[in-house]
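Q: Focus on the shape:
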Amino acid sequence: MSRILSFRRVGLTFSAQIYNQIVILGVQLVQVPFLLAAWGSERYGGWLVLYAVPSYLTLTDLGFTSVAKNQMVIHAAKADRTGVLRVYHSVFALLLVATAVILGACILGVESVSLTTTFALGPLSESEAKQTILFLVGSVVCYQFLLLLGSGVRASGRPAAEVIAAATARLLEGVATVAVALVTTRVELAALAVLITRIGMVIGVWTWLRIVAPEIRLGLKNARLDEIRRMANPSFSYMLLGLAQAIAIQGPIVLLGALATTQETVLFSTSRTLARMGTSAANLVNFSFAPEYSRMHGEGNRSAFARLRKIHVLIGLVGIPAYGIGLWALGPFIMALWTHGHVAVVYPFFALMNGAVAAEMLWGCLFTPIAAINRHVRLSYIFVGLTMVCAVLAYSWAVSWGATGVAAALLLLHVAMSVLVLLLRPRG
């Protein structure tokens, strides 16, 4: 019976992840034409710049909400309510302090610079730009609290509900942005709509969680500085892992933009986007399994944990080669259709990129059960180091071989990480 319930939870979470991906793609596809038509390309371009700047503040929690999510599920599986609240309240206190610092610094920073001089914002005035960016900063801060509430939802045994809440928040934000754009060209009002939507979602999830899981209450009573200290290393290493992954994804474009031709930059970007569709699919599976790993670890059920990992790895060992072979066979046709013949698949570059993505999918699968129990510290720092080495190699090889050299460096990075995750994974 427990095995059936376990697979049911994974299945429900997987379904929720599919809904999340549909929302992400739907919002991206629908927003662009509506906002372009309503605002024009220059105003929309200014909005994109202002929207991108506060996104870097998502790292200000230093990875604590991600680590807290796993730790709270582990405590909940042990029926350790005090442990759940200790983590929950400690991270809540940390976010309150971080929020005060961030908002104060952003208000002072925005008032001290000229945004229209610093960025190309098209027809946006200085006043519009400053109001917009402050509203967007506020929405990013609200999102951190939504993530923390998501930890409470997951700890209550409802990982699918956590995903659905986050996806629904994203959907409502997209709808609110388009709705405002259809009425007015004032982008600051669109930013305000995003902020109000996020505040509403935070209040909604908080209220719902109080009803369905009153034992997991947000507060400060159980906050402990020692708990923050215990979580610091796993949290910081998790944050660095995300930064390194961002560098590995976005860095090559910057590098090729400086060293290669525009044609090679376009070739790399489009080929990578096509190849990484498999990564998105793999993440659907990985994110669906992660909450169950945390729960089984907290219960001390090693046999069930090992059995789930075998099934997870088996899915990867079947799915990853199938995707790679399919992409190898259909890649040229898909690329020609997608780009209307403007970009063609080039070998050996495309084969190297395909291999790099397959290796990334493999180590992502192997890494998921490790990260789900917060035992990722050593491997996270190793990946950061490997990424720095890869950056040096990518620069050197880009000078000689352009996009092909960068793809070769990425392949080396992800193959090395796959081997190391397999060899260095925790045994206990």
User: Anything to note?
Assistant: Residues 2-223 form one domain.
